[in-house]
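I am writing to request your help with a piece of structural work I have in hand. A protein sequence and the structure tokens that stand for its backbone fold form the material at issue. Please examine both parts with care and let me know of anything in them that strikes you as inconsistent. The record follows directly beneath this note.
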Amino acid sequence: MSGSGESARLVRWQRPSSAWGRRRVTRTTERGGAPRLRLLALLVVIGVVAWLLLPVPALTAVVPAAGSRPAAQPGLPWLSTADDRMVDQTGRTVLLHGFDDDALLESTMKPAPLDATDASLMEGSGFDVVRLPIAWSLLEPERGQFSTAYLDRIASTVAMLNAHHLYVVLDMHFLGWSPVYGGSGAPAWATLSWVPDVQWGPMPSVTRLLSPAINASTAYFWLTSDWQTQYLRTWQFVAERFRGDSGVGGYDIINEAHAFPLLPLRFDKDDLFPFYARAITAIGDVDPNHLFLLENDALGDLPTSVVPISAPDLVYAPHVYTGVLFPPSFTGDPQNLDTHVDELAKEASQLPAAMWVGEFGINTDDSHSSQWIADALDAFAAHSSGWAWWQWRAEGTWSVRSPDGNSLNMTLLRELAQPYLVAAPSGYAASQADGVDGRLLITVATAHGPPAAEVAWSDYTLGSPQVSDSCGAQWTWDPSSSRLSLTVPAGVACQVELSAG
């Protein structure tokens, strides 16, 4: 009791009696609390940053050995990867140059037809691949019920393109999550119907993608196994059909996955790349014969937090719209574009995988479009990366051919139809080509590989090539496929120049 009383008297003795004293003590307390709050806030920020940057273990996808594949289609050898290269059955490095075309997507995407004339024009211009978007909503319109009729449409289009020596990359396409919301992708049963779809703008504007329904459905897909399970079963349904077809280059697992509305960095580590590993395992269980294409996080030009995956035949297939869809706008300086492509090549090596740019493009009405295209092609070539332009036949000024088929953007076609080494044995290298004037220089080292090299040359835009060499090289020109076959004598170094006649 006496101690309590003394403590009380001590407190009363220290308490100032004046209003000025009370104010001074209050201000002293406030000044003491602010640093503690700032320190707490700093610790929270450090903790969040550390969590975002926290690495995760490498992943493994279990894929059976490809074993003995069926005979390859004429002119379309089986593709695989070796180190950071895409290669054919003889080990030649393969480059795929071509186009996207959305002819098989939902009506919400206003697809234009894709016909044999399109395939013939692509072949005659030297291209060798079409990235063909397909739709989950049309493959599995009801949960667990798959459409053989739509799969037949896909197979028919693949066969038509293969007949013109064009590989096909099958891309399971998404835009705005689902055609239910005016885009492409998930069937109606894979949407959250009870969440309102607030339409703050037309598809595919950024404001449209802020819809609560789109973001809730997107988040549900990534945060649960519910729809993912059916999605991978859909891929197995497709892969079972094409497992023996060398004309299908590979499977692009999901188009433009992005962190929004989830946290960036952690999305890549906790959701996207673990999903890729599961998808490769699921598809590979049905079809171990094809390439697996993995895209970057499509959240602007921000870097992707790649998680290494141990699996065969991986291809990193990013999309590049630097200075086109993502600011700052391109005005002729290639620095930002080059920096981004360099970053993508680094990410491919981290996976590790070959790199192939699955989409790039620009509005050709843009006054800088020709320069942007030239810079992009130079940047891709610097990393030995093939590419596909978005897209071949569509409305607007991004495409080569009009939807009605009555017009062709020859300026764009010439800019893209650069000669290139389609299949290069070891020891072969090519300069960056000129598709407008027609020029390609091939350098062959003394210790070069034995198979013949194949060169793509656009007969449609450049005519037949003129060939000069320093070593007695042998060559044959096939205008029907726009291919030049080149053989250099064993143990001989050589330079071969191709030019327009």
Residues 1-30 have pLDDT under 50 and may be disordered. The first helix runs from residue 2 to 14.
